Amino acid sequence: MNKNAMQLNSYRAEPFQFRARRHTMMVLYLLEPDHPDFIEMLQNKIERARNFFDHAPVIVDLGGFVGKEISVTIKEIFILLRRAGLIPLGVQGGDAQLQGEAAGFSIPVVPELGRRCDGQALTEILLQPPEIADSVVEDVAPLEAVSPTTLLITSPIRSGQRVYAEGGDLICTATVSAGAEVLADGNVHVYAPLRGRVYAGVKGDIKAGIFCKSLEAEFVSIAGNYKVSDQFDENIRKKSVHIFLQKERLLLNIL
């Protein structure tokens, strides 16, 4: 047997593999695309969190287009998203005509999955007006004790869900499951097991920190500096931990 034949025999029968994997995906809900300042407001929203949105995959929900006379086109929205650095991967909702328009840009239709948590759409917090975030925590008492720039979540955040506290801190009093994401422009506090992905200082605040009761996270990040679970010391796993930046190094201290 010659050398080339021996090399071929050492490879797998198929040098590739298809696998089904579950990924967290941001959804852009077009609630009122007929708003006169829709494009400008969306563009400003993206600009305020450039680091967060850069190269982020996004699903566009077309439900807000149904039954309305709207001057903004799907094409304009896709162009805006791409210019802003986002990557539209699919659309959901809408009718056959709207989905057909999306298909003209090689954007597939995807099923609507994992939207609800205790009757509220946590994935909608990111791009909805502030009153939507208020409705998520309406069962918190007393609500007055929570800062206007702090988002309080008392329900478990399940795999595939994402919660973003824009302009302030995020407090979670229930479990953040593996496959879930929690993000804040300020600090992130999780007074329960933290098993998902957590981002503090999303807009670059190097003084932001992460506080958790039980560190079991897949990924932690502050102002773009990150560590994955494989980099955690064994002695801090499942411990109460404070994560912070010091001279551009991400440090993890047991509380």
Structure description:
With about 260 residues, the chain is of the alpha/beta class. The protein contains six helices and 14 strands. The chain folds into two domains: about 25-105, 2-Layer Sandwich (Alpha-Beta Plaits); about 150-255, 3 Solenoid (Pectate Lyase C-like), CATH 2.160.20.70. A six-stranded mixed β-sheet has the order 4-6-8-10-13-14. A five-stranded mixed β-sheet has the order 5-7-9-11-12, with no helix packed on it. β13 and β14 form a beta hairpin. Residues about 115-145 have low confidence and may be disordered.
CATH class of the largest domain: Mainly Beta
Unreliable runs: 114-146
Widest sheet: strand ordering: 4-6-8-10-13-14
Give average pLDDT, whole number: 76
Number of domains: 2
Rg from Cα: 21 Å
List the helices and strands and how they pair.
Blueprint: H1 3-9, E1 26-29, H2 38-48, H3 50-53, E2 57-61, H4 74-83, E3 87-92, H5 96-103, H6 130-136, E4 150-153, E5 162-165, E6 169-172, E7 181-184, E8 188-194, E9 197-200, E10 210-215, E11 219-222, E12 225-228, E13 241-246, E14 249-254
Parallel strand pairs: 1-2, 2-3, 4-6, 5-7, 6-8, 7-9, 8-10, 9-11
Antiparallel strand pairs: 10-13, 11-12, 13-14
Short overview:
Cell division inhibitor that blocks the formation of polar Z ring septums. Rapidly oscillates between the poles of the cell to destabilize FtsZ filaments that have formed before they mature into polar Z rings. Prevents FtsZ polymerization. The protein has 255 residues and is of the alpha/beta class. Helix content is 18%, strand content 27%.
